[in-house]
């Protein structure tokens, strides 16, 4: 194991996490892709309290928050810890991928997948929404990823995308017929289709089972805390299950081998 590779992955993850935080914070609720892209590019980052434009030294991932002790350099008001947590989480994800020892090309694919599901999870947690602007490109990237592996992988990926969408869409139609209301959004069906495109149709039952178990645990914890949630986002549960399975499929480490 190359320790320098892990360190490089941590640094790259922190930088990516800083960008992903911007992407999430500027997400428009109407989920218009062009408007979202425009908001990401403009305006420049500024303090949410005083509106002062942040300099490059204020945007160094992780270090800026620690050096400034969680306060704005200009108005000295407390800064949200959210960017710090997201940057740390992204760094950890990339370090785990690097620890599984994939080839450089595969590392790039897994990093792309990890960033996408991380953004989807956080947006779904905040807005109960999985935007097409990410789920649909993620699906096509999954097909392209498996196409460059082998024709057999591509066949399984296409079947995974179809089965993933139809299974969740069918469950929702049954729930709608029985309860006269949607049980899950179409975003969940599209996201499950994207996971099927990345992992293949044979992995879908395991992903759904793991996601359901994670969802039950989250629901129980929220109930123990006295929280009364009407709707629970399922995207983060699917993300954890799908990410774990994909790393288990393509990583060389034994850490995730118990999943598959």
Strand content: under 5%
What's the order of the H and E elements?
A: HHHHHHHHHH
Count of β-strands: 0
Q: So how many helices?
A: 10
User: How far apart are the first and last residues' alpha carbons, in Å?
Assistant: 23 Å
Radius of gyration: 19 Å
Instruction: Indicate how many domains the architecture comprises.
Output: 2
Which regions are unreliable across 5 or more consecutive residues at pLDDT < 50? 254-260
Name the structural class.
Answer: mainly alpha
Shape: globular
Q: Name the average pLDDT.
A: 84
Helix content: 55-70%
Largest sheet: none
Note down, in words, how this protein is organized.
This protein has helices spanning about 5-25, 35-40, 65, 80-100, 105-125, 130-145, 150-180, 185-200, 205-225, 235-250. With about 260 residues, it is mainly alpha-helical. The longest helix is centred in the middle third of the chain and has 29 residues, at about 150-180. The relative contact order is 0.11. Residues about 255-260 have low confidence and may be disordered.
């Amino acid at each position: 194991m190359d320790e320098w590779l892990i360190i490089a992955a941590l640094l790259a993850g922190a930088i990516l996490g800083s960008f992903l935080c911007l992407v999430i914070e500027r997400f428009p609720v109407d989920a218009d892709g062009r408007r979202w892209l425009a908001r990401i590019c403009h305006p420049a980052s500024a303090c949410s309290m005083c509106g002062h434009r942040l300099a490059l030294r204020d945007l160094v991932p992780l270090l800026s928050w620690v050096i400034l002790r969680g306060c704005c350099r200009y108005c000295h008001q407390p800064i949200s810890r959210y960017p710090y947590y997201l940057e740390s989480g992204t760094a950890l994800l990339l370090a785990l991928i690097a620890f599984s020892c994939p080839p450089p090309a595969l590392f790039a694919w897994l990093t792309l997948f990890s960033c996408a599901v991380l953004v989807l999870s956080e947006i779904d947690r905040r807005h109960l929404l999985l935007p097409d602007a990410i789920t649909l490109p993620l699906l096509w990237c999954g097909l392209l990823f498996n196409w460059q592996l082998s024709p057999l992988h591509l066949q399984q990926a296409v079947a995974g995308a179809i089965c993933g969408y139809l299974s969740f869409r069918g469950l929702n139609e049954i729930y709608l017929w029985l309860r006269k209301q949607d049980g899950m959004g179409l975003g969940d069906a599209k996201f499950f289709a994207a996971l099927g495109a990345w992992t293949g149709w044979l992995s879908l039952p395991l992903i759904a089972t793991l996601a359901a178990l994670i969802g039950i645990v989250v629901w129980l914890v929220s109930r123990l805390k006295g929280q009364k949630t009407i709707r629970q986002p399922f995207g983060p549960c699917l993300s954890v299950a799908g990410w774990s399975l994909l790393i288990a499929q393509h990583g060389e480490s034994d850490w995730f081998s118990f999943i598959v």
